[in-house]
Give the backbone structure.
Amino acid sequence: MVKAKKTVYIDLDNTLADYLGMCDQMHISPAEAKHTIGFFKQLRPMPGAVESYEKLNEHFNVYILSTGPWSNPHSLCEKVEWVKEHLPSAYKNIIFSHHKDLCRGDYLIDDSEKNGAKEFAGTHIKIHSPEFPDWNSVIRFVFEKENI
Ligand SMILES: [Mg+2]
């Protein structure tokens, strides 16, 4: 019998896309960046993020789950453009929400506990925490847990 694929959600800012790195480069604060038109489109992928996304995509149903700043709706367009450029295999698999806990699934890879991440019913993998310092540690954890 073929096992049904599990579902993985992945956050964008500071998980797949290097938000803070671009703040440093542009000499602006993270709060300021939120409202800066054109900011989100320019972000570089986090180290290992694209490769990790592709690895997960081979074994799971993967969705990008991101929150767009309420004050800057342009960010939503920019995030779609970013995903088209860097993760073309995420075709139509983007969800925007301020309530990530409403998404049903097995894993949420997210650097933050905000916007419902902490309340997510599956396993919240908090990337850039002591337990999961980078993408390698995330992939190792998920693949070990799922016997891949
Ligand atoms: Mg984030």
Observations:
- The beta strands are 7-10, 61-66, 94-96, 107-109, 123-125.
- Residues 11, 13-15, 110-112 surround magnesium ion (CB under 6 Å).
- The chain has one domain: 7-145.
